[in-house]
């Protein structure tokens, strides 16, 4: 489990972030490792591997992951909602934007920003299996093992982190903080 650093780089959100969990260099190094492993798993396939980004949180992750792969890939995007403007998941999944192509017979990697309860991701995996992909796997940047309520089989996990409220590198609270280049913990006073 990764530990929080009290050193917070200067940022436009001032004191809202109380600590850094994963710095920028560590993020990029681990993503490169995960992308190489995925490239090795799908090397030699007849068709491009589809990288599926769950918007908006995984946008930074998919961009860096795709650039680090050394096999042909194509990107797809879905938007799901379970949070709205609150800090806790409602547990109900809503598709806000669906895939633009058929994934039947294709190798698909779901790139997830964070697994907390696992409820949304469990739902998504079941939903996509019904569309007949050749293979379907999950690669997540972050996981909060203590918060998991529904187990989801993952091929790769970037970092296990504590159950703090985290922001940065695509992760938000009320659509803010996504642009931080590292993952940090948000002060409870901001979302309480």
From TrEMBL:
Could you list this entry's UniProt keywords, alphabetically sorted. Answer: Cytoplasm, Glycosyltransferase, Magnesium, Metal-binding, Nucleotide-binding, Purine salvage, Transferase
Enzyme class, broadest EC rank: transferase
Q: Known InterPro entries for this protein?
A: HGPRT, Hxn_phspho_trans, PRTase-like, PRTase_dom
- Which gene does this sequence derive from? hpt
Q: Which cofactor does it need?
A: Mg(2+)
> Which pathway does this polypeptide act in?
Purine metabolism; IMP biosynthesis via salvage pathway; IMP from hypoxanthine: step 1/1; Purine metabolism; GMP biosynthesis via salvage pathway; GMP from guanine: step 1/1
Quote the Pfam families the UniProt record gives: Pribosyltran
Name of this protein: Hypoxanthine phosphoribosyltransferase
Q: What Gene Ontology terms describe what this protein does at the molecular function level?
A: guanine phosphoribosyltransferase activity; hypoxanthine phosphoribosyltransferase activity; magnesium ion binding; nucleotide binding
Q: Please report which protein family the annotation says this sequence is part of.
A: Belongs to the purine/pyrimidine phosphoribosyltransferase family.
| Matching CDD domains | PRTases_typeI
Q: Where the protein is mainly located, per its record? A: cytoplasm
The entry's localization annotation reads:
Cytoplasm
What this protein catalyses is:
IMP + diphosphate = hypoxanthine + 5-phospho-alpha-D-ribose 1-diphosphate; GMP + diphosphate = guanine + 5-phospho-alpha-D-ribose 1-diphosphate
């Amino acid at each position: 489990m990764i530990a929080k650093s009290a050193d917070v780089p200067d940022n436009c959100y001032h004191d809202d972030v109380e600590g850094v969990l994963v710095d920028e260099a560590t993020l990029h190094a681990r993503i490169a490792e995960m992308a190489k492993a995925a490239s090795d798993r799908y090397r030699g396939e007849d068709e491009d591997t589809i990288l599926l980004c769950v918007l908006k949180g995984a946008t930074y992750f998919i961009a860096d992951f795709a650039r680090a792969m050394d096999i042909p890939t194509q990107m797809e995007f879905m938007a799901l909602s379970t949070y709205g403007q609150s800090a806790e998941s409602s547990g109900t999944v809503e598709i806000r934007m669906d895939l633009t192509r058929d994934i039947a017979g294709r190798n698909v990697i779901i790139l997830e920003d964070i697994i907390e309860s696992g409820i949304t991701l469990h739902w998504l995996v079941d939903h996509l299996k019904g569309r007949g992909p050749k293979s379907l796997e999950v690669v997540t940047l972050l996981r909060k093992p203590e918060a998991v309520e529904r187990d989801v089989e993952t091929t790769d996990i970037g970092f296990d982190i504590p159950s703090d409220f985290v922001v940065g590198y695509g992760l938000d609270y009320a659509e803010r903080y996504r642009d931080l280049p590292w993952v940090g913990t948000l002060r409870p006073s901001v979302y309480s």
